[in-house]
Design goal:
Blueprint (H helix, E strand, L loop, with lengths): L8 H28 L17 E7 L6 H9 L8 E8 L5 H7 L3 E5 L7 H13 L7 E6 L3 E2 L3 H10 L4 E8 L6 H24 L11 E4 H7 L8 H11 L4 E11 L5 H33 L2 H10 L1 H14 L3 H4 L5 H5 L4 H19 L13 H6 L1 H10 L17 H12 L1
Parallel strand pairs: 1-2, 1-4, 2-3, 6-8
Antiparallel strand pairs: 4-7, 5-8, 6-7
Helix pairs in contact: 1-6, 1-11, 6-14, 8-9, 9-10, 9-16, 11-16
């Protein structure tokens, strides 16, 4: 420790701030470069002949308000009826979810377990039942009870599976983007992710996409070989990383669309995002370093990219600390500002520019309705609210209690399609 002798507090602070700035600069540049790959659509060759069979699984906990329209929608999917069945897991339900689902034509399995609560446990229980059935399916498609699905969904999944892909994530759209300012800004965040992260990763041809909780399709042989085992608060992210740790990439289907219900109020979105933050910190703690090590050993960038994604909560906390130092004059003058040496802009200017350019680009590229742009006014509030949420997620990372998001928007797929046409015109 002799090398520390004679070093002042200001010099130590400077040494501490240098790696922080390099991390922020590197990851900002990394995501900027990645997003460029989302500016275009690659021409895809699609398999049009229906071949694969599907078990459609809907996980539902007290969803009597919204499950009816979804099942009606699924029964009308443009795919041979003999090649898919619809299963509903009525998980710890105390309402009429099971009855409504059964009357709508779904195969209902009721599960009661007050200790192992949550979607991940419900799916694992249902998968084990599917594996024991006389009829076996090529793949399992997973939806939430509040969803609505574009009619070509199974054709798109069939095409991906026939091309050799094992895990597929679809485009996550919103079924109620204009209900409130929260649903609007929440929808913008999803549209940005769809275009500038998910499609971008797919276009590189080298990276793995990430499962998004719904609109997921997983080959049955993968589930049988490696098991589900994803029972954290973010089971989708957990399974993405588990599969990738075995070398199995997730691919992207931009033309397969699921319309997801977004929370109506800010507090509903707060609790939902807090659960996501807790889950991501939890998954990062288990998979971050193994993915880095695997990336070094196999020299494949997809493992590093996945690790970078898991690092996002830490990045938010690091960037927040860095920004706070810019408000304290004494601290601001106690370190070498790498931002001003590398770029003519400050960190605040970079983040402010990105937070508007990215959403505008995503909305324009996917030709979303003009009303969507109104959400950009309050979009910064939604984005910066992630800061306290991430800190709370880190603090409560060991809390595995599932928080259910109540769904109330009972609309049919025709209404969603009509709403989009009206908004576009």
């Amino acid at each position: 420790m002799d090398f520390l002798t004679g070093i002042t507090g200001a010099q130590l602070f400077n040494l501490f701030m240098l790696p922080i700035q390099f991390i922020i600069i590197f990851l900002t540049f990394y995501y900027f470069v990645l997003s460029i790959f989302g500016l275009y659509r690659k021409q895809e060759i699609k398999v049009l002949e229906p071949e694969k069979s599907f078990a459609i699984v809907v996980a539902a906990h007290n969803e009597e308000t919204v499950i009816g329209p979804l099942l009606e929608n699924l029964l009308l999917l443009e795919y041979p009826k003999k090649l898919f069945d619809i299963f509903v897991v009525a998980d710890n339900c105390t309402d009429k979810t099971a009855l409504i689902a059964r009357n709508a034509g779904a195969i209902v399995h009721r599960r009661f377990n007050t200790e192992k609560r949550g979607k991940g446990y419900a799916l694992e229980w249902m998968f084990q039942r599917l594996f024991k059935m006389e009829r076996q399916y090529d793949a399992i498609a997973i939806f939430d009870a509040d969803n609505l699905v574009k009619e070509n969904f199974l054709f798109e999944m069939n095409s991906k599976l026939c091309q050799g892909h094992k895990i597929v994530q679809c485009y996550l759209d919103s079924k109620n983007p204009f209900d409130t300012w929260v649903t609007n800004t929440f929808s913008i965040a999803f549209w940005v992710t769809n275009r500038l992260l998910q499609l971008a990763r797919y276009n590189t041809g080298r990276l793995s996409n990430l499962l998004g909780g719904t609109g997921m399709c997983i080959s049955t042989d993968v589930l049988k070989e490696f098991g589900w085992g994803a029972t954290s608060l973010t089971e989708d992210l957990e399974f993405s990383m588990k599969a990738l740790s075995h070398g199995i990439k997730t691919t992207w289907a931009h033309d397969a669309v699921v319309y997801d219900e977004k929370p109506l109020t800010f507090m509903q979105s707060w609790y939902q995002r807090k659960r996501w933050a807790q889950g991501q910190v939890d998954v990062a703690g288990r998979y971050f370093f193994p993915l880095i090590i695997k990336g070094i050993r196999e020299r494949k960038i997809m493992y590093f990219d996945a690790a970078i994604h898991l690092f996002q909560p830490a990045l938010v906390m690091i960037a927040t600390f860095f920004m706070l130092t810019n408000f304290i004059g004494v601290l601001q003058n106690s370190y070498t500002p790498i931002f001003t040496l590398v770029m003519p802009w400050t960190g605040w200017q970079i983040l402010s520019t990105i937070q508007y350019i990215y959403p505008v680009a995503a909305l324009a590229l996917d030709r979303l309705p003009w009303r969507a742009y109104l959400g950009l006014i309050l979009y910064p509030i939604f984005i910066y609210s992630w800061i306290p949420i991430v800190f709370l997620g880190f603090i409560n990372r060991k809390d595995k209690q599932w928080s259910h998001t109540k769904h109330t928007r009972s609309i049919c797929i025709e209404d969603v399609v009509k709403q989009k046409k009206v908004s576009t015109n």
